[in-house]
Design a protein that fits this description.
- The structure is a single chain.
- By secondary structure, the chain is mostly helical.
- α3 runs antiparallel to α4 and α4 runs antiparallel to α5.
- The longest helix has 21 residues.
- The radius of gyration is 17 Å and the shape is globular.
- The N and C termini lie far apart (53 Å).
Length: 161
């Protein structure tokens, strides 16, 4: 009986992370290398065939973790890998507001030299236009993002208040 319970517990923790825990961890990923590595690990089991929101968070994890690579070539390769994965996720679900928010959160924080800042206006407009259509939990999550975002002016942030 103990073995059966142990197996059940083990299988309940294997697989994809739940979206709520990923959302909770995401705002702190960029604060330290340990946070970035932990976030990458949480999403390591996510494949391109899984829920596209989780795939987008995996892409963001790769992008955020790339800044901690020691070698420039490896840093660039990881960054390109993450950007390519995020862009392919957006192509597959262009009307997903959370994926747009993830891309905006990345693009507003990467150095200009990366050339990965071209969708900020587009994503801001999408979020502003479709915010009111979202469920309460997602609205709250988006609101938290918008209020701390560098991309929205104080006047533009009024739509979430």
């Amino acid at each position: 009986m103990k073995l059966l319970l142990s197996l059940l517990l083990w299988f309940s923790f294997v697989g994809n992370p739940d979206l709520a825990s990923i959302r909770k961890a995401y705002p702190d990923v960029n604060k330290s290398e340990a946070n970035a590595k932990s976030f990458v690990e949480k999403l390591s089991g996510v494949s391109n065939n899984d829920d596209k929101i989780l795939v987008a968070y995996k892409a963001a994890a790769i992008l955020l973790d790339s800044k901690f690579e020691k070698k420039l070539k490896e840093k660039m390769n990881r960054f390109k890998e993450g950007a390519k994965l995020l862009e392919s996720t957006i192509v597959s679900e262009p009307n997903n507001i959370e994926i747009r928010m993830i891309r905006l959160s990345i693009q507003e924080n990467v150095p200009g030299i990366t050339g990965y800042k071209k969708n900020i206006k587009e994503d801001k407009k999408y979020i502003t236009t479709h915010y009111s259509e979202q469920n309460t939990a997602l609205k709250e999550y988006l609101k938290d993002f918008v209020l701390q975002s560098k991309s929205f002016s104080d006047k533009e942030k009024q739509f979430v208040k």
